[in-house]
Design brief:
The protein is α/β, with parallel strands linked by helices. Helix content is 34%, strand content 17%.
């Protein structure tokens, strides 16, 4: 297959880019790939909302910029922060025009919420399913564009670069170029070659590297791992944000139900097993402190008391208020016997968001030519050492827009079909070979894959979680080395499968997290190392 523009991922970043290119270039083809159904994305599970300055009487761009810089703990790129905050309002207006509906008050004004780290009420939301509503609006708009082809159940195996043409590629190789991707079509079980003039990676996060996460099963860090294998630049992977309040359900591992930060923004109070409101001991902002502070406070309370969770007290809320703002949370809690008007909600931190990722510039360009990245898989410089709540959807839309502007500017003076098709697998005069799978067999035992996944999740959660130290990091690296060797042997001799490829990708992502954490000899933002508790070294971005 050949396409003018290729998008990997169908979350808010990928769909925004595809829609904008389709509107501006009706004579060009855009292909969107997703490895499950089109709406199964991290965007879908974003509850709280999207941050944007909407009330200029009380709020301002400068306030939002300052809140973001404070949360980022000294490592944000100020230029990028200003770009996202100032351009973000236009992007919000666009998605409203595309059909997204945000909650309004009785006067018809947007009902703005407030979350941890924000100095003003600036969070637009749709109940407690904001991401799902934005995804719905985008998918409906995409369906109206005849030049967009959305292909589900397509697992991307690798980015095609000069490496696949037989050249030796290193990180110092100039002008590494992306020609497209190899894809395992899960419907036909065949490996296909898709060539593209420009490729956008919008592949989401990597929360599944950990035992407990708010991310869906698809969040296995595929984009980051593929770019790393292609010798692209990755940075700041040590900054993994743990959401402070995932619903604690005994025996449940994997995908944890998120209790949005907006519940604390509306007055929810964190309490320990003695019923004490403990956040005042950790930060003057109490329950509205940034996520890194709240997550570490909860982790400390759990360790002090020897418990597996703390409580979020919403018993002082009226049932009408809670069910109006958080209907899905209310129903979920009720389904496991928790009536929020009578019982406190048991919560514990869970892996939630990766602030690092594929290094990009202010136009979403990666270090690989013709390859862009946006959304959680990208490291733009916005979040620094810790993401401010509800800035992620905003960032995704802003950089999807900027990637669109950049690629369209590059194609305006070129012919309609910018792919030169002198051969079936030829792009711009470069012949691309098919995927080689000779000499491989189906895996004899899936236990070899599933057990390695369990081991990786366990060691990452125990050794590279909210609080770390050098010994834990070194132990994690030794065990990852062994898992890597075993998995590569399996990969070389067996046919590819989504399970094997996801394991391989997650091991690569886990390695990058540990490696970056080992390089950072200080505690800053989401990275807290008890061997370096101070943050006076001001180590800048760690790029691998």
């Amino acid at each position: 297959m050949q396409t003018d523009f290729l998008v990997i991922g169908s979350g808010i970043a990928g769909l925004t880019f595809a829609l904008k290119v389709a509107e501006d270039c009706p004579d060009k083809t855009i292909t969107v790939l997703t490895k499950t159904q089109s709406d199964e994305t991290n965007t879908k599970y974003a509850q709280g909302g999207i941050a944007g300055v909407m009330d200029f009487d009380k709020d301002s761009f400068n306030k939002h910029i300052e809140d973001t810089l404070i949360a980022g703990d000294g490592l944000c790129n100020r230029e990028v922060v200003e770009i996202v905050v100032r351009e973000g309002v236009e992007r919000i207006q666009e998605i409203i025009e595309w059909g997204a509906q945000f909650d309004k008050d009785k006067d018809g004004d947007y009902a703005l919420g407030r979350e941890g780290g924000h100095s003003e009420f600036r969070i637009l939301h749709h109940k407690d399913v904001t991401g799902k509503e934005m995804e719905r609006a985008l998918l409906e708009a995409i369906a109206r564009k005849s030049n967009i082809k959305l292909l589900s159940h397509c697992f991307v195996l690798d980015i095609i670069t000069q490496h696949h043409l037989g050249y030796l590629i290193t990180k110092s190789t100039p002008d590494i170029e992306c020609y497209g991707v190899y894809v395992l079509n899960l419907k036909s079980n065949k490996i296909e070659t898709i060539l593209a003039s420009f490729t956008l990676l919008a592949s989401g996060g990597n929360g599944q590297v950990y035992r407990t996460t708010t991310n869906p099963a698809i969040a296995t860090g595929d984009g980051v791992a593929m770019v790393y294998r292609a010798k692209g630049r990755i940075e700041n992977m040590e900054f993994i944000q743990f959401h402070p309040t995932a619903l604690y359900e005994p025996g449940v591992r994997g995908h944890s139900f998120l209790i949005t930060e907006a519940v604390r923004g509306d007055g929810g109070i964190l309490r320990n097993h003695n019923g004490e409101a403990f956040m005042e001991r950790y930060d003057e902002r109490k329950d509205l402190a940034p996520r890194d502070i709240v997550a570490r406070a909860i982790d400390n309370e759990m360790k002090i008391n020897g418990t597996e969770h703390v409580y979020l007290d919403c018993t002082h809320f009226s049932k009408e208020k809670f069910t109006e703002h958080f209907p899905n949370i209310y129903e979920k809690c009720l389904s496991i016997g928790i009536d929020i008007t009578k019982h406190m909600i048991p919560v514990a931190p869970a892996a939630h968001y990766s602030c690092g990722g594929i290094k990009t510039d202010e136009w979403a360009r990666t270090s690989i030519k013709n390859l862009y990245a946006a959304g959680e898989c990208a490291s733009t410089g916005l979040h620094g050492a810790n993401r401010l709540a509800s800035n992620s959807l905003l960032e995704a839309m802003v950089f999807a827009h900027r990637a669109y502007r950049d690629v369209v500017a590059k194609t305006k003076d070129k012919p309609v079909h910018i792919i030169e098709s002198s051969g079936e697998n030829t792009i711009n005069g470069v012949e691309v070979p098919n995927w080689k799978s000779e000499g491989t067999n189906a895996p004899k035992e899936m236990i070899l894959i599933t057990q390695s996944v369990k081991e990786m999740k366990l060691l990452m959660s125990d050794y590279v979680g909210i609080v770390r130290n050098n010994e834990r990091l070194h132990r994690a690296m030794k065990r990852l080395d062994l898992l890597y060797e075993e998995t590569e042997v399996l990969y070389e001799k067996t046919a590819v499968s989504p399970q094997l490829c996801e394991l391989r990708n997650m091991i690569s992502v886990a390695y990058l997290i540990v490696k970056c954490a080992d390089f950072r000899h200080e505690s800053r933002g989401l990275h807290f190392n008890t061997d370096y508790p101070a943050k006076d070294k001001m180590i800048q971005n760690i790029v691998l």
